[in-house]
Design a protein that fits this description.
The protein is α+β, with helices and mostly antiparallel strands. It has three domains: 5-56; 69-150, DNA polymerase, domain 1, CATH 1.10.150.130; 180-374, Orthogonal Bundle (hpI Integrase, Chain A), CATH 1.10.443.10. 48% of the residues lie in helices and 10% in strands. It is built from 14 helices and nine strands. The protein has helices at 42-58, 69-79, 86-104, 114-126, 131-150, 180-188, 193-202, 206-211, 255-275, 302-313, 321-334, 339-346, 351-358, 363-379; strands at 5-7, 14-17, 23-28, 34-39, 217-218, 223-226, 229-232, 238-241, 249-252. The strands form three sheets. It has a four-stranded antiparallel beta sheet with strand order 1-2-3-4, with helices on one face. Helix 6 runs antiparallel to helix 7. The longest helix is centred in the last third of the chain and has 21 residues, at 255-275. It starts with a strand and ends with a helix.
């Protein structure tokens, strides 16, 4: 045996050091052929060999597929993302083509191991991508490998245990109770006052506000049915899609929001009359609650610019439409709304997601809840 190799335990053959500094071990599969496992150390390869030979003895061994990582990523995008938005699939495909295929595309899926994942991480870091971007890329890659595991193409997901240095969560701007009056005044000075006031009082996403139709609003019942969102199709076109997570939701709104919607209906009638023959309502803009002055659907930045203008007026020039959503959530929780209700109104997948995002901003809600319980108990005269 050469100096570069070591004897594996239990007669599993030798472990050799490769030119790239990694280690390879070979074993005989149930098909009678030799197969390889890889690792960063002899110990890691030894463990992989023991696991492989154990699966052979137990009858659970899977014959390695000839499919490459590149081929599997294409299969995963095509066959396992039917419910994913086309725009998202295109984004994933571009990510794989630019960053993953050049590094791991020709590696056999069955041979993929931690050493390959580490090679990918190193390649991503050399491109000086943001840590949060790398984290998101690896999460998508891990999801693809999880499906490969479920499909019995690999035993384990080598990307499942990869940990990246944590990145600080992006701080968002909260318009608190003291700032609300100033914000409402600033909103009235913009081109789209009702849009801004509606957003901060409902927490709807920007696309959901742009896609809201009058047929989805019941002013008498005080409800808004969030059934679609307006999304960019490309740089010059837009389209309607289901809300995020493909779930519609019916939310109850306070009287202040009903008043805003009534004013918006009146404002639209006045705008249509003033525009006359210049009214440009098209199929996309027909029936929308919030539109531009001549009837077109809102573009990608019309509301964003209004939000920034209102923010600048109250000393937050970097204010973003999503900050209005955050402000709604924090205000609702501080006002005593239960987490499940806020989760539903926001369209979050789980209440945990709502808590994870807003817990740091609602510490005073805990004391408010204790005070309410105390008042309730006092009323019982126990």
């Amino acid at each position: 045996m050469s100096r570069s190799g070591t004897r594996a335990a239990n007669g599993m053959g030798s472990i050799r050091k490769r030119k790239d500094g990694t280690y390879e071990g070979r074993y005989t599969g149930s098909d009678g052929r030799q197969h390889s496992v890889y690792g960063k150390s002899p110990k890691a390869v030894g463990e992989a060999l023991r696991a492989a030979t154990h699966s052979v003895d137990a009858g659970t061994w899977l014959q390695p597929s000839t499919m490459t990582v590149g081929q599997w990523l294409n299969v995963w995008l095509t066959d396992y993302n039917a419910d994913t938005a086309e725009r998202t699939v295109a984004k994933y495909r571009g990510m794989f083509d630019r960053h993953f295929i050049p590094v791991l595309g020709v590696v056999k899926l069955a041979d993929l191991g931690p050493v390959h994942v580490q090679r990918l991480l190193s390649a991503l870091k050399r491109k000086k991508l943001a840590e949060s971007t790398v984290k998101n890329y690896m999460a998508v890659f891990s999801a693809a490998l999880n499906q490969a595991k479920k499909s019995k193409l690999i035993h384990e997901n080598p990307a499942a245990d990869i940990t990246l240095a944590g990145t600080p969560k992006k701080e968002f701007h909260i318009i608190d109770r003291q700032q609300l009056p100033a914000f409402f005044e600033a909103a009235k000075a913009t081109r789209f006052p009702n849009e801004l006031q509606f957003m901060i009082l409902t927490g709807l996403r920007l696309g959901e506000v742009g896609g809201l139709r009058w047929i989805d609003v019941d002013l008498d019942a005080g409800t808004v049915n969030v059934r679609q969102q307006l999304r960019p199709k490309n740089k010059k076109m837009q389209r309607f899609t289901l809300p995020k997570y493909k779930k519609t939701r019916l939310i109850h709104v306070p009287p202040q929001v009903v008043a805003i919607l009534k004013d918006q209906r009146k404002r639209q009638a006045e705008q249509r009359l003033a525009a006359g023959k210049n009214w440009e309502e098209d199929e996309l803009g027909a029936g929308l609650v919030f539109r531009q002055r001549r009837g077109q659907a809102h573009g990608g930045h019309t509301i964003s610019r209004a939000v920034a203008a209102a923010g600048a007026a109250i000393g937050i020039p970097e204010l973003h439409p999503h900050d209005l959503r955050h402000s709604y959530a924090v205000a609702a929780l501080r006002a005593g709304a239960d987490v499940k209700t806020v989760q539903h109104n926001l369209g979050h997948k789980t209440a945990k997601m709502t808590l994870d995002v807003y817990a740091a901003y609602t510490q005073d809600a805990g004391k408010a809840g204790a005070d309410k319980l105390s008042t309730y108990i006092d009323a019982l005269n126990i």
